[in-house]
Amino acid sequence: MNFMASKQPENSLLGPEADSQRTLYPYVTGTSVVALKYKDGILMAADMGGSYGSTLRYKNVERMKAIGKHSLLGASGEISDFQEILRYLDDLILYDNMWDDGNSLGPKEVHNYLTRVMYNRRNKFNPLWNSLVLGGIKNGQKYLGTVSMIGVNFEDDHVATGFGNHLARPILRQEWHENLSFEDGVKLLEKCMRVLLYRDRSAINKLQIAKITEEGMTISQPYSLKTYWEFSAFENPTQGAVGSW
Amino acid sequence: MDLNMDLNAPHSMGTTIIGVTYNGGVVLGADSRTSTGMYVANRASDKITQLTDNVYVCRSGSAADSQLVSDYVRYFLHQHTIQLGQPATVKVAANLIRLISYNNKNMLETGLIVGGWDKYEGGKIYGIPLGGTLIEQPFAIGGSGSSYLYGFFDQAWKEGMTKDEAEQLVVKAVSLAIARDGASGGVVRTVVINSEGVTRNFYPGDKLQLWHEELEPQNSLLDILNSPSPEPMNI
């Protein structure tokens, strides 16, 4: 039954956007996701914002979800496309479980599946407008990878999407090391998230941190970070040069 | 008509629509203005459309797109209800709206708020903005008039309101949006849905509260001129 799928355009009175073969633009978007490997598994952080252009419209969007038993998916970009990806993954995990063969898809396999989906959509000029972070641990092997809307994919000890690429990754490059404790991992992620909060217009001060270990996935309750504004240079910035900013 | 819109900004849509949950059900509200460019094509439209006995949808954006989407979903829900043997849930209705909105995102320009009551989850509101994201919320606002209401709701919304508090909030909010949004106007319509059923209400424009710099409507200047001058004060 295909009547609810998009119709093939015969004549585009609506302009180039109506041609479903062309690239769309995003409407409701999530901002950065940051993740790192630590001693027991993966830690991932994302805020709960869904922006609508420049408006911070939705403030309770969960942008990280558990996939099967071993993986954790975080997404930035168009939320409706993320919701659709979750549906694809539901089917994938269902089929995996229906084999009932004792084997289950690990994070590496899920990452590969997502890479194929994203790259094939990109080739049809109809991308899923997301940057994804896929982390997990299976049989003691930690895995952390990322896929972009054009199919660029790689794995690393720490990854970030969006603004996080510019603001969080330099911090992670300096301060990440092998076998971080849970506390140190959380503090490092919070340091990244605080910088993003200061400097990313689409960031909101309500975030969650998710952890995935051999035991399973947990996601924290939403919480807010304290911020610091009491620099003397902030209190009277134009004292030395009246009229400046 | 403006064909060179900034592709990175979302389209603003004529209308103000609101959906609010309260302890026992939901209240949906909307203005009644349908515009074609600068002309008001219909000053008393009904933007709150029935999908089933217990689920309604507030429509914003393109009138044609929102009407078609509602018509399709009403049709599917009708069949679904027959097959299921009991009333459809609000979640199912919202997901059907999402399915059409998402799969036709390139061609549709409509933001919808689905609200209703079912015996499993009680009163629920689902927002489905442009693009087809489905988001369950304790309250939702939409349409071009909603820009003026984010601050209002941040301050005025609270959990666990009564039916009357919720309805008064909705009426006040639509009225405030109408005061500032050129694409919203006319009357305020509300629909209350709970376990007892559905109630439609109508608040004509001239019966709404006056806001800043709005004046009490008069029949004519002549009435003002002919009215008795005020009594001199006694100091």
Automatic annotation (TrEMBL), chain A:
Keywords of this protein's UniProt record, alphabetized? Cytoplasm, Nucleus, Proteasome
UniProt-listed SUPFAM superfamilies:
N-terminal nucleophile aminohydrolases (Ntn hydrolases)
One of the Pfam families matching this protein, by short name: Proteasome
User: Transmembrane segments in this chain: where?
Assistant: none
**Where is this chain primarily localised?**
cytoplasm
Which InterPro entries does UniProt cross-reference here?
Answer: Ntn_hydrolases_N (IPR029055), Proteasome_alpha (IPR050115), Proteasome_beta4 (IPR016295), Proteasome_bsu_CS (IPR016050), Proteasome_sua/b (IPR001353), Proteasome_suB-type (IPR023333)
Q: Where in the cell is it found?
A: Cytoplasm; Nucleus
The record's note on quaternary structure and interaction partners says: Component of the 20S core complex of the 26S proteasome. The 26S proteasome is composed of a core protease (CP), known as the 20S proteasome, capped at one or both ends by the 19S regulatory particle (RP/PA700). The 20S proteasome core is composed of 28 subunits that are arranged in four stacked rings, resulting in a barrel-shaped structure. The two end rings are each formed by seven alpha subunits, and the two central rings are each formed by seven beta subunits. The catalytic chamber with the active sites is on the inside of the barrel.
Query: What family does this chain come from, according to its entry?
Result: Belongs to the peptidase T1B family.
Q: What does this protein do?
A: Non-catalytic component of the proteasome.
Which protein, by its recorded name, is this?
Proteasome subunit beta
What is the species listed in this Swiss-Prot or TrEMBL entry?
Hibiscus sabdariffa
UniProtKB/TrEMBL annotation, chain B:
Protein name as catalogued:
Proteasome subunit beta
Catalysed reaction(s)?
Cleavage of peptide bonds with very broad specificity
Homology family: Belongs to the peptidase T1B family.
Binding partners and assembly: Component of the 20S core complex of the 26S proteasome. The 26S proteasome is composed of a core protease (CP), known as the 20S proteasome, capped at one or both ends by the 19S regulatory particle (RP/PA700). The 20S proteasome core is composed of 28 subunits that are arranged in four stacked rings, resulting in a barrel-shaped structure. The two end rings are each formed by seven alpha subunits, and the two central rings are each formed by seven beta subunits. The catalytic chamber with the active sites is on the inside of the barrel.
Alphabetized UniProt keyword annotations: Cytoplasm, Hydrolase, Nucleus, Protease, Proteasome, Threonine protease
Taken from the record, one Pfam family name reads Proteasome
InterPro entries, sorted = Ntn_hydrolases_N (IPR029055), Pept_T1A_subB (IPR000243), Proteasome_bsu_CS (IPR016050), Proteasome_sua/b (IPR001353), Proteasome_suB-type (IPR023333)
Localization (cell): Cytoplasm; Nucleus
Tell me where the signal peptide lies. none
**PANTHER family referenced in this protein's UniProt entry, alphabetically:** ATP-DEPENDENT PROTEASE SUBUNIT HSLV, METALLOPROTEASE TLDD
Keyword Plastid tagged: no
Please give the function described in this protein's UniProt entry.
Component of the proteasome, a multicatalytic proteinase complex which is characterized by its ability to cleave peptides with Arg, Phe, Tyr, Leu, and Glu adjacent to the leaving group at neutral or slightly basic pH. The proteasome has an ATP-dependent proteolytic activity.
